[in-house]
Amino acid sequence: MGMDELNALFPPARSLGGVEILVTLLLTSILSLAVATVYRWTYQGLSYSRSFVHTMVLGAFASSIMIMAIGNNLARGLGILGTLAIVRFRTPIRDPRDIIFLFMTFAIGIGAGAGVYSVIIYGTLGFCVLALYLHWSPFASRREFEGLLRFMFPVDVKVGVEVQDIFKQFCSSATLIGIREAVQGDVIEYSYQVRLMDPSYQSEFLDALHRVKNIDEVSLLMQRSTVEI
Q: For the domain with range 146-222, which CATH number is right: 3.40.50.300, 3.30.70.60, 3.30.360.10, 3.20.20.140?
């Protein structure tokens, strides 16, 4: 293999000026902070990790530096790839959504380091808008205005027509999911999975049930359509 072929395969690295480097790193920081902010706004888990948010921002910054250092030099790229192969990342990420946010910040760093500024600016804007839409909308949720209704009747009283009429008035569906004895067998607790026709019906629905004779301990636990339990 001649020198010309070697130069074509391993070209010299692209040199960057100080202003271009500062602009790249500043843009990387701003865009990764925007993604991290959207992640913080839309996070709904139980174990929020401040270090994970820091990882997104710092990871984008580091990947941007890495891409600028590699440039178009294949030898440098292979060297960095070999170095990264030695490092083993064993931190578990339980939520696939967290992986996507982390991947997005790395994409910002790679794009900024490669100098494709328009791609990462419009891409970050679209990603944030889509993430906020999925957070606020009930998209992909199978639960809409669902709740768990519980009430008690004396052991010698059955759930009558009056309760069924209330279900028909306020609910699109009501399914009995459990019956058990309570208070040493003096009362029967009924559990229903109900789906309200409209979320504003909650107070009226409970008021109607409280007016039923002999009913006691009425409670309704609503399921938020944007949270999966």
A: 3.30.70.60
